[in-house]
Amino acid sequence: MTEKQDYPMLRIALEYGPIILFFVAYTLLKDRTFTLAGTDYSGFVAVTAMFIPVLVLATLALWRITGHLSKMQIVTLVLVIGFGGLSIWFNDERFFKMKPTMIYLLFAGLLGFGLLRGESYLEAVMDRALPLERQGWMILTKRLALFFLALAIANEAIWRSLSTDAWVNFKTFGLPLATFAFFMSQAGLFKRFGIEEDPENS
User: Fold this and answer.
1) Mean pLDDT of 97-118
2) Nearest to residue 139, comparing CAs of 106, 186, 182?
3) How far is it, in rounded angstroms, from Cα 130 to Cα 38?
4) pTM of the full predicted structure?
């Protein structure tokens, strides 16, 4: 079976494109009200209804192009459909705002459970992309579990206490930037525990 070709720029576009589209659509439609079957829906709920199929199509395209999806991508898609669907069904934007909290609590819990068993589930997922010594994986897993927990708390604090505009900005820009900053801050760990790949096996 031939391996799927990797297209880095297209992959990035498919991963982050739906989030950017959500932000743009929300900015344009946030002050509008949409009526369907006698029920009024806010611009936020309407944008959520548009975001779900866009994310489904982008995820399917990503799978078609790369030949695989990460567990995180699959779980994220399921939770977006679940919590987005609840927001639409009950006409209540709070469900969709809770979705990042559920995602980060789930991943923090899974990583923490693995640590209690003396294992790094992160290593099983990212080993090929990031070769590290076992001790490095255990440290990174502990830090990432705490980071996910912090993101879950931050998401709850923001959507419950600030405006919807603030939450959308946090979701669109704050979460990706925080994740980027986290991994950049681990440069010392990567350098200390990194394993150089054998060129003959690469």
Assistant:
1) 94
2) 186
3) 53
4) 0.84
